[in-house]
Amino acid sequence: MRRPDRTAQEALEVAKLYFYSGLTTEQIAREMKVSRPKVSRLLTFAKESGMVEITIHDTDQSMAPFAREIRDCFSLNSVQVVPVPEVLGEVLWLDRVAKHAASYLNAILQPGMTVGLAWGTTLSAVSEHLIPKQVGKLSFVQLNGSGNTWTNDNSYAARILQSFADNYQARIYLFPVPTFFDYRETKDAMWRERSIQRVVEMQSNADVLLYSIGSVSAGVPSHVYSGGYLEPKDLKELKTQGVVGDLATVFYREDGSYCDISINARASGPPLDLYPRALHSICVVSGLAKVPGLIAALRAGYIRDLIVDEPTARDLMDRISEPNPTLPGGTDGSTVRSRV
């Protein structure tokens, strides 16, 4: 019979004394006859291993001006603004937002749920901060293909999904298709295959969607733009067609339109009308360059739950409060007035 791990036993004892009995780290150290640094290490182990789950009911934060205004302006279910030190830069912003998103995910996941994941830089960061939790019969499905013309290595997206699956002891369903097909006809043919239809159906019925906004000019570059998935002619075409961002490699304009953007006919990501239908449609955003794409997605109704860093939220609020904003480039070439 395997003996319980001593570190785990000690961590559990420390956690109970700290959280249940309300003892300080100094009192615990004296009681257990160990050093205070060891008590701190054991508390950290208890949290990182999933023994301890902390839920913060921060009513002030949930109703903070940025969060409240954004939520009410776009009729969102929830907005969470993550405090970050602005002067330390966007790499740290992303790290803080990713940690927050990982904790939030544990609060909403329920047994039997299906979670759609759009792989990329932000989801990779979230995967590094996941907190172990047992959630029965949980499934993760890849929302967009990850094949690349220039490499046969699809491990980037697979590693992200595997991290989520390992953390929750869940099943994963990869999407074994290219990110972008060379020809629309090839995609149409693939979508008639039953194996592909099964994954697409899982995407369509997902309870939770977790994704970010893709941006070509982000301070922390979106992986689809920096990883060789788009050729120079594709980037030129996106600029010509007024693209401001993407969700799972489906591109959209400032007015939210996307159906007539030519590259989308070859893209493997789901149609954007999928996002409002999910029970939890969680967009995790960090970085000022993503604000134009974020505003467009919010106005179009593609987001239901938003997790965003404070400087990005501030810039978002400043932009939507500008007098009489207009959105150039409607699908018919006309100017579309903002609904905000």
Question: Could you characterize the architecture of this molecule?
Answer:
- This protein has 340 residues and is α/β, with parallel strands linked by helices.
- It folds into two domains: 6-48, Orthogonal Bundle (Arc Repressor Mutant, subunit A), CATH 1.10.10; 59-337, Rossmann fold (3-Layer(aba) Sandwich).
- 42% of the residues lie in helices and 13% in strands.
- The chain has 14 helices and eleven strands.
- The protein has helices at residues 6-20, 25-32, 36-48, 59-62, 65-74, 90-108, 121-127, 155-168, 184-190, 194-204, 223-226, 232-240, 291-300, 310-320, and strands spanning 78-82, 114-117, 139-142, 171-173, 208-211, 243-247, 250-253, 280-285, 305-309, 326-327, 336-337.
- It has a seven-stranded parallel β-sheet with strand order 1-9-8-5-2-3-4, with helices on both faces. A two-stranded antiparallel ribbon has the order 6-7.
- The relative contact order is 0.13.
- Mean pLDDT is 85; it is low at 325-340.
